[in-house]
Structure formats: structure tokens, C-alpha cells
Design brief:
The chain has one domain. Helix 1 runs antiparallel to helix 2, helix 1 packs parallel to helix 3 and helix 3 packs antiparallel against helix 4. It is an all-alpha fold.
């Protein structure tokens, strides 16, 4: 149960990026992002590394989207600051979630084999 609670931010990030990808009509990538939390079922170090890589990719995607939307809003003469703050916080949440999987508890549950 403690492992599930520690994985909640990662699951939330995966579902959030899945919604983002669904809106962009990227169904295959959306499906992968929904299924990737299931990798935590396997109790090996590769699972944790894969989760950390996924979180890095998610964060980079949010930053890419933020920069793209900023340029679109600037060209349209619209306010972009609030959107940039929200997407920046989402990207930081993804990057901060990486550190959950570097804790001693996780290292004990997912030993090197």
C-alpha cells in the first residue's frame, strides 16, 4: 500500500499526459502513457529506470507544449503568462516525481538483480 501511495504522483502525471496526447489525437502514445504505470508490477531496477525516463519525457513534452503555446498566444496578442505558469508547474511536478523513485524505500523494494 505504501508503494501505491508513493506512485500516485507518477500515475497522476501519466494520466495527465495521456489526456494531453488524446487532445492532440495521438492515440498510440496516449495508450502507452496510460499503460506505463503497470511497469511498477515488476520488481526490478529496470522498472524504476523506465519510470524515471518516462517522467523526464513527460516533463520535456510539457515544456515543449508550453513554449509552442506561448509563441501562438504572443502572435495572437493574447495573455500567455497564466498558461505558462500552469504548464511550468505541471512540468516541475513531473520532474519532482523522479525523486520519489530515488528514495531508500523504493531502492529496497526494487533491488538490483
Amino acid at each position: 500500500m505504501k508503494l501505491f501511495i508513493k506512485a500516485i504522483p507518477f500515475i497522476f502525471c501519466s494520466l495527465l499526459i495521456a489526456a494531453h496526447l488524446f487532445r492532440a489525437n495521438m492515440i498510440i502514445l496516449m495508450s502507452i502513457s496510460i499503460l506505463i504505470p503497470l511497469i511498477l508490477i515488476w520488481k526490478n531496477r529496470i522498472s524504476i529506470i523506465t519510470v524515471q525516463i518516462a517522467l523526464i519525457i513527460y516533463g520535456i513534452e510539457w515544456i515543449r507544449s508550453m513554449l509552442n503555446l506561448i509563441s501562438i498566444r504572443i502572435e495572437a496578442g493574447e495573455n500567455w503568462l497564466r498558461m505558462a505558469i500552469i504548464l511550468g508547474v505541471v512540468a516541475l511536478l513531473n520532474f519532482a516525481s523522479i525523486f520519489i523513485f530515488r528514495s531508500r524505500y523504493i531502492k529496497e523494494k526494487y533491488p538490483k538483480k
